[in-house]
Amino acid sequence: MTHTTEHAPTRAHPDRVHLDNGGRARWHPLARQAFLQAVDDGWADPRRLHTEGRRAAALLDGAREAVAGVLGARTEEVRFTHSHTTALHSAVLAAADGRRRAGGDVVVSTVERAAVLHAAHDAAATHGGRRVDVPVDRTGRVDPDAMADALASPGVALAALQHANGEVGTLQPVEDVHARALAAGVPLLVDAGASLGHVALPPSWDLLAADPADWGAPAGVGVLAARGRVRLVLRGPEDPEPWAPGGVSVPAAFAAAVGLQAVAADREAEDARRRALIDRVRATVATVPDVEVVGEPDARLPHVATFSFLYVDGEALLTELDRAGLAVGSGSACTASTLEPSHVLAAMGVLTHGNVRIALDRSTTEQDVDRFLAVLPGAVARVREMLGVGGL
Amino acid sequence: MTHTTEHAPTRAHPDRVHLDNGGRARWHPLARQAFLQAVDDGWADPRRLHTEGRRAAALLDGAREAVAGVLGARTEEVRFTHSHTTALHSAVLAAADGRRRAGGDVVVSTVERAAVLHAAHDAAATHGGRRVDVPVDRTGRVDPDAMADALASPGVALAALQHANGEVGTLQPVEDVHARALAAGVPLLVDAGASLGHVALPPSWDLLAADPADWGAPAGVGVLAARGRVRLVLRGPEDPEPWAPGGVSVPAAFAAAVGLQAVAADREAEDARRRALIDRVRATVATVPDVEVVGEPDARLPHVATFSFLYVDGEALLTELDRAGLAVGSGSACTASTLEPSHVLAAMGVLTHGNVRIALDRSTTEQDVDRFLAVLPGAVARVREMLGVGGL
């Protein structure tokens, strides 16, 4: 078996075009290489004192340091967790519990991930507070003034605002909101799970969570950073590794760090390349009858595009495209399996059905995009025909 | 890079003899092969509806089914968790919370893992109960009558008894205790984290946790099985995958299952082979002056041996052996990094310092054991000399 050292994921199924690379992308070749190296050199328990244990500990320390370097954080501010979801849960609960004397309210935007919304609800309920939901506009963007008003109310323990929305690509005004949060003395959790590795990350956060699986590293590991000034109180049974009880996989953490360094290195080039492709996708799809191109057109992730098609069932369209060799995402990233309407699209006030998202990774070519654009209009028409709305 | 298909782990450092394979072992070659296959075929999010997502879901379902087959459980009774520790935490909390009407007490043996002891403490505290600690004898074995007495008291929500102790190898009378628990109507959690894949597992459990990293599969994934009759109530923020929020790594789960099938297939042969090696180790080490061979001599894991050396510092001995190319374990598996005295050894009433554990894996040869036995007496003597007790 040979491993490529090219900087684009190899394709196990070359006839397929996979355009659902948000949240879970194919492994970056350098992440794969790092993983295998760490299976050989870092399989042992990093808490052990012998040579093999110390070697594993060194790989884990190196991984934390590398992630901290990309985040602009100190190494000791970075922890690995078991998943992006557990990072968000822990961050919300630990920071809200740590500030319980200030109050029990947790301020969130309505387009945060389900993990943030649920944890904020639980944290607030514990301390007799409430989750304060700040609405977004039709592009999915929160109004910094509305967020600032909510933040400045008495009794707020914590605020959470995502860096970018993974479903629709819209960037949030995190720098502005962080300045207001700082003034109010309220720590801000920034969910960078859809953005880290794709766009520049400002240092405007007190807590930050990021998702290795989104940048082509293994699933089963998450990243949580917290500035030293943030007081954190942990729930759950005592454990030597309370952020990831039982410890994380050293190879997965090492691959996460190496993968992050790799995507950070070519981020600007990949931003330009993928932004141009997405611009073309947005413009071309807009010509399909009865479609809404969703999300902020400019302040957005470079690699994500989302559309809502009137008179189309999202699952049927996804299946139709899949049959043609094209994989796309549909509906909410968090509840795709249940096909519940996306809370993000609902919060934006756009059509929640007939929704399709594409997210390009580093292996996506112009030809892939051409093929998607060639196949899509016919697929939409066929689904509309099946639903008996072909003539519309 | 070539991958061996031999059924023993390859050695990255052939000059080293690694005898600390309890809880974290080198990857089994078939687990490695399965992992890489699943990175190619199962990298996608198994909750997605396209071909790649369904392929990942099929691998995950197959993994659950395979593990269930080895456990003698139904597929839907098996869940993957983020680690063995989170499996134990979730099992104790969810089962105790599910039985809170019956009472708040949780009965445990004093040699359970720290994760069980801490979770039992938390669960009991939540419901106004207490953790009831049942002592063990000098071999580390719990008295089934004492366990039965504790079980039969009013107000017991849950009992936990490990199948075998990973630090000293002693098997517990789980069949006997399960019969008594069944009679008392109290569910029994059996921690098989040190035993599954090494000894036959009786079906005498209501909840069962097992540790893939212990049988040569990746860390970062755990196994939790619960019989359909056990009522479980989950803590923590709502999540579509509450036993592993955010989901587990599909390649890790698939490798865990394939690895388990592989070690189950040659379990009896490996039991006989390793038991004979350990018998020799126990007999030979007993001739070192001032040593106690720890644990039950017969009813024990086939591959584990533990010794306490008088007038020896455990860390110094571990370092001395490491310098000679031999990796061994020391002290408590849960707190090795802090070198706190092992709560297991303390509960047994044996010497808690100067402790060394070896755990053989499938790659351990007779020559490895010869080398350990040749090096050990001199290493012990040198450490005693350093401490100024060389003449004893």
Q: Which segments of chain A are poorly predicted (pLDDT under 50) over 5 or more consecutive residues?
A: 1-7, 333-337
The tally of structural domains of chain A comes to 2
| CATH topology-level name of the largest domain in chain A | Aspartate Aminotransferase, domain 2
CATH architectural type of the largest domain in chain A: 3-Layer(aba) Sandwich
Q: Going across the major beta sheet of chain A, what is the strand order? A: 2-8-7-6-5-3-4
- Tell me which oligomeric state these chains represent: homodimer
CATH H-level superfamily title of the largest domain in chain A: Type I PLP-dependent aspartate aminotransferase-like (Major domain)
Provide the structure class of chain A: alpha/beta
The total strand number of chain A stands at: 12
What would you note in describing this structure?
Two copies of one chain form a homodimer. Chain A is an alpha/beta fold and 392 residues long. The first copy, chain A, has helices at residues 29-41, 51-71, 84-98, 114-126, 144-152, 174-184, 250-265, 267-285, 314-323, 343-348, 366-386; strands spanning 17-18, 78-81, 105-109, 131-134, 156-162, 188-191, 207-210, 222-226, 291-294, 304-309, 326-327, 355-359. At the A-B interface, helix 1, helix 2, helix 3, helix 4 and helix 7 of A face helix 1, helix 2, helix 3, helix 4 and helix 7 of B.
